[in-house]
Amino acid sequence: PANTVGIIGLGVMGAPMAENLLRAGYNVIGHDISEAAVKRLVAAGGRAGGDIAGTLAGAGTVITMLPDSPQVEQVVLGPGGVLEHAEPGLLYIDMSTVRPETSRKIAEAAAAKGVRALDAPVSGGEKGAIDGTLSIMVGGDADDVEAARQVFEALGTTIVHVGPVGAGQTVKAANQLVVGGVYALIAEAIVLLEASGVDAGRGLDVLAGGLAGSRILDLKRQTMVKREFRPGFRIDLHHKDMGIALAAAREAGVALPMTGMVAQLIAAARAQGLGALDHSALLKVIERINS
Ligand code: NAD
Q: What is a biological process (GO) this protein takes part in (predicted)?
């Protein structure tokens, strides 16, 4: 059982993560409400769980990689969910990005069933998931983090235990506000360069090599200049994450003015019908402000 991993949520991130677990030698049982997603896993050598109970059968570890807090709560706490079917000793790892309170609520319910729970959201995007180079920020008990380490090593290269349950999600919220801000400013740089008659691609090449350089500039500047916005990471999901960051700020009693502004730009992108595009489509919002 220790080498069998169940995974629920086989989307942009969950599918390549499951494939990396297979490559690392784990037996992988997967479940998703999308049949096509399950077929992809089976084609890669995994097994279809059929439902949540079937996905837990024989698995020592179960991972969720779902869109948002309501889906995670339903799958874990809901009728027919993970905790209803879990045997004591199961290691449950939520790698989705959700509210820290969701992680704490789940860990409490899990503990009552003898199930160990970690929140372990990730950064690195679709490419990090495919390459197995995710950054994984883990909240929970140190012993449980150690128990999960081998699984994490199949998925990522930077694995950091950042604190108790919920702390992983707080770190992820910090990550998302930085990522959103960087995209917004790259978009503004492109608009300025083009409006001034300067080649934006060449301009950003220079930025990438200097102090303004970033992983986002490295990976995304060419597609942004070409206006290719296939997700990747959908605007809708980043909108959710800005909400998580602002709620965390409110709870912590701090003001994050830039985060508020970026959250409004992402809300505008959504209002303009861009929710299904990659978050680099913030460029369209900045262009529309100027057209
Ligand atoms: P996605 O929408 O591509 O995948 C989510 C999957 O969950 C879908 O296949 C969907 O069918 C499935 N699903 C939804 N509800 C379900 C349910 N009740 N039972 C079973 N399956 C269900 O999303 P994604 O891009 O893979 O993101 C997943 C999580 O990871 C999100 O929390 C996101 O914020 C986070 N994340 C995404 C990225 C990225 O670059 N895409 C990067 C880091 C973190």
A: organic acid catabolic process
